[in-house]
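Anyone up for a design puzzle?
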């Protein structure tokens, strides 16, 4: 079980991020598992999903990255390369990845602190982390979709999945919904 730190002492949104239609700024940051540098230019020709999150080992970030980790095969099925980015050190990322069994590469925006987040206009000076932000970048390096969520709210993956489906013209098929067995559905309390 992961050790979870308290959430950052902040809330809301301070920076709204770069808008769709803007050329995505280059990024060049070390990534898990081995510190090799990831550059946006190395992924030209494929859509890229960026998940900016405030910090490793925090409750909302752990839930958010866990969700994207579970959906990684679907995201890759849409041709996307997906990366998480925070201002934590590479060593913290390595421990976090190991603890949560994450397959999503995590990029360290640690030094110079917040440089990538600043380029994407999602750095929070008040607490020294990034906003909770999602970006989909098209194959030509232009931001196709972006979303900034209040720092204390997990935005989920629906927006990124929808953007990738629209961008690629492909639809994901999650199969038919499976109903819950009767025994696990909430039952009304009998009245006396």
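Challenge accepted. My sequence:
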């Amino acid at each position: 079980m992961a050790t979870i730190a308290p959430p950052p002492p902040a809330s809301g949104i301070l920076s709204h991020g770069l808008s769709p239609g803007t050329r995505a700024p280059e990024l060049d940051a070390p990534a898990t598992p081995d510190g090799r540098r990831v550059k946006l230019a190395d992924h030209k020709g494929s859509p890229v999903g960026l998940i900016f999150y405030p910090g490793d080992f925090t409750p909302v970030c752990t839930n958010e990255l866990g969700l994207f980790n579970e959906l990684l095969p679907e995201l890759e099925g849409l041709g996307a390369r997906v990366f998480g980015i925070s201002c934590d050190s590479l060593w913290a990322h390595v421990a976090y990845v190991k603890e949560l069994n994450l397959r999503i590469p995590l990029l360290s925006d640690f030094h110079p602190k917040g440089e990538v987040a600043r380029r994407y206009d999602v750095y929070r000076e008040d607490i020294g982390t990034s906003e909770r932000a999602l970006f989909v970048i098209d194959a030509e390096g232009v931001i196709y979709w972006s979303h900034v969520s209040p720092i204390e709210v997990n935005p989920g993956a629906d927006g990124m999945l929808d953007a990738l489906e629209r961008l690629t013209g492909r639809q994901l098929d999650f199969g038919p919904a499976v109903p819950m067995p009767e025994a696990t559905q909430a039952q009304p309390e009998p009245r006396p």
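A detail worth pointing out: The two ends are 43 Å apart (CA to CA).
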